[in-house]
Amino acid sequence: MTAIILPIVSICLLGLIAYRFWKNEPVLRSVYWPAFLCKLMGGVALGLVYTYYYQAGDTFLFFQDGVTLTEWGKDNFGAYCRFLWNGDDQAIIWSSIHGHEPRSLFFSKMVSLVNFITNENYWITSCYFSFASFLSAMVLTRTLIRFYPNARIAAVLSCLFIPSVVFWSAGIVKECAAMMSLCFLASIFLRIMKDDDLYSMDVLRTLLFVWILWNVKYYYAALFLIVSTTTIIVKIVSWRNPPAFYKQLLIWAVVFLVPFSIAAWLKPNFRYENFFNVVVENNRAYNALSLHHDVIHYPNLEPTAASLSANAPWALCSGLLRPFPWEVQTVFQALISIENMVLLLFIIVSVKSIIRCKAIDCMIVWSAVVYIILLCTFLALSTPNFGTLSRYRIGLLPFLFFLVSCDNSLIRRFQAFIERSFSRLVP
Questions:
Q1: Domain ranges of the chain
Q2: Burial class for 195, CB neighbours closer than 10 Å (0-12, 13-18, 19+)
Q3: What kind and span of H or E run contains 248?
Q4: b/e for 296-327, b at 16 or more Cβ within 10 A?
């Protein structure tokens, strides 16, 4: 009986929480339920794809390890709590867990916590993770609309309805927790840049999401924190007498070295002597495991600054736009390619407005562009497999789509079409 009642209670609880958020939603009530359902369906679709298409995947390993920890926690809650905080290979449960890699283990611990209220049901646990990611995306959307009211459609589309982002940021995968954290941190960054008041709970939530993001996707966290911290410092330094934009960029380039050095100290993979080797070793590992037509190929890629710099433009182009339509081999690649072609069209149409920074502050645009270029280039060089890259690059897609959708003539025409259609239906 418990196995039936608890899942029903969990579903009702999720629905009640979602309803309460909708009731208190002042800005996005009209798109709340469509975006909510899309995100939940994305999590369910991810589970189905891994069940019937890939027939294996880390989502089920995360869940199974989460179940193992939850069951152990029911019998020995004190030991379970200690393991959540500082568990290592000395714990009695260690041999029963599959994913010992720190980031995987951290996420499995998160799954185990949710399992307590879902009765260890994969699909309901997936819905809870999807809902958390959805709420964070709503926070970012609301923040963008608040500061850029003329970019309402761009904010809604880029944060809530990009297909690959909806799919990969839902369900029981690390990217779900990463995007939940990244969207909230981006919202906080915008509020700081716009001199918005921050409260004690904002600070606590920021620390929490920085901790989560660092533990599940440290390269997302490192690049985002380096770029955003640099921009905030430049804003503080030039607060009284803002210099010309090009002078701000010079200051930005100098200040950038400080948080970058801190990140390198915290994570050895970012140190100069290790970084190039890590990128090339990952690239070769993915090439060894992938089919020839499923990866980006780089001529004579070597662990040197010169070699990586020479291949960086092709990595950036490939990371943003490949697979090209003529390279498509599977249904999933076809879907990715369609999304990429839409992105390319938006980039072409909006390039002038981005250069002029008409709709968004120049320093915020600069920060977003640097983050997008660095993350995309790094991902395309180190993870050249098209499928994996489409999953990892969701950490930059909402920001890129917002930049190219903001003040975009195609978006304006689409909005005008919707308004005309609505006026005909509702006289």
A1: 1-216, 217-270, 291-427
A2: exposed
A3: helix 245-255
A4: bebeebeeeeebbeebbebbbebbbbbbeeee
At position 231, the amino acid (one-letter code) is: T
Q: What are phi and psi of 217, to 5 degrees?
A: -145, 80
Inter-CA distances, 180 with 136, 209, 324, Å: 5, 8, 29
Sign of CA dihedral 417, 420, 424, 427: positive
Q: Please list the helix, strand and coil fractions of the chain in percent, rounded to the nearest 5, in that order.
A: 80, 0, 20
Q: What are phi and psi of 197, to 5 degrees?
A: -70, 135
Distance in angstroms (rounded) separating the CA atoms of residues 191 and 143: 8
Q: How far apart are the C-alpha atoms of 120 and 158, rounded to whole Å?
A: 33
Q: Which two tokens stand for residue 402?
A: 């917002």
pLDDT in tens, 399-426: 999 988 887 777 777 667 666 654 554 4
**What's at 170, amino acid-wise?**
A
Residue ranges of the chain with per-residue pLDDT less than 50: 359, 422, 425-427
77 in Cβ contact with 31 (< 8 Å)? no
Q: 295 - beta bridge partners?
A: 385
Q: What is the reported pLDDT for 128?
A: 95
Query: Cα angle vertex 160, ends 157, 162, to 5°?
Result: 65
| Rounded distance between C-alpha atoms, residue 14 and residue 6, angstroms | 12
H or E element, residue 354: helix 331-356
For the purposes of burial, counting CB atoms within 10 Å of the CB of 244, is it exposed (0-12), middle (13-18) or buried (19 or more)? exposed
Which pLDDT value is given to residue 2? 58
